[in-house]
Design a protein that fits this description.
By secondary structure, the protein is mainly alpha-helical. Helix content is 71%, strand content 0%. The chain has one domain. The radius of gyration is 15 Å and the shape is globular.
């Protein structure tokens, strides 16, 4: 097996091998979607998102954890990994509750790609 499977997600996002980064980008994309699903379930059941331990909730929020590194993800040097990064950005923009900061960070990179 690859040694990159033993690394945490942040380490795989910085990995020198593009395939490891690509897998990490897919995982981030899935985390964004799962965070959105979790938030929707709370809204459907009328749960207050601030119930429970607020610190654990903040740590577990994928949008807050991985949103700030989307700029690096979509600027990947490998085209295939970059495509997965753009997919993650799309999921973030579609489902994140607040996108202004990330859109401001990535707009230059996106304009360069057009």
């Amino acid at each position: 097996m690859d040694d990159d499977e033993n690394l945490n997600l942040f380490q795989r996002l910085e990995h020198p091998k593009w395939k490891a980064r690509m897998k990490a980008y897919k995982e981030v994309n899935e985390l964004f979607y799962h965070q959105y699903s979790k938030d929707c379930q709370r809204a459907d059941f009328g749960d207050n998102p601030l119930n429970g331990d607020e610190e654990d909730e903040a740590k577990a929020n994928a949008f807050d954890l991985y949103g700030p590194i989307l700029q690096k993800i979509i600027g990947d040097s490998n085209l295939i990994a970059q495509y997965e990064g753009l997919s993650s950005l799309h999921t973030y923009i579609r489902y994140a509750p607040e996108i202004k900061y990330v859109v401001f960070m990535v707009h230059g990179i996106l304009l360069d790609k057009i």
